[in-house]
Amino acid sequence: MKRYLLAAAVAAATAFSAAPALAETPDDISFNGMWNVCDENKDGGVTRAEFVKAMGVMYDKQMKKAKSMPNADKMMKGDALTAAGLRELFKSTYPGP
Q1: Taking a C-beta distance cutoff of 8 angstroms, is the pair 84, 6 a contact?
Q2: How far out from the chain centre does Cα 82 lie?
Q3: How many CB atoms lie under 10 A from the CB of residue 5?
Q4: pLDDT means over runs of 10, the chain (97 residues)
Q5: Residue 36 parent element (H or E)
Q6: What pLDDT score was predicted for residue 72?
Q7: Residue 13 buriedness (CB in 10 A; 0-12 / 13-18 / 19+)
Q8: What pLDDT does residue 97 have?
Q9: d(CA 84, CA 71)
Q10: Which of 58, 75, 85, 91 gives the lowest tally of CB atoms within 10 Å of its CB?
Q11: CA-to-CA distance for 97 and 95, rounded, in angstroms?
């Protein structure tokens, strides 16, 4: 479990650090937008707790979105995202150049 969380955190952090400035919409977010979401107490740093909380919010949004999709059975399995669902979460967080 810890390996999966670490892998997800590293992937997300890498994506955020390499993200170009994009228009912020509900489906994608720029580095600055993600920074503002993560740095909850606005102290100029992101703690593990702040990062995990922000990722939880993104995860919850993706689960809600996945439940309403016609291919929900491919996006989620019970209360968990499948690989396809997690891929969509990362794509919506950092859609790429």
Answers
A1: no
A2: 14
A3: 11
A4: 55 50 50 85 94 88 85 86 85 69
A5: helix 31-38
A6: 86
A7: middle
A8: 60
A9: 10
A10: 91
A11: 7
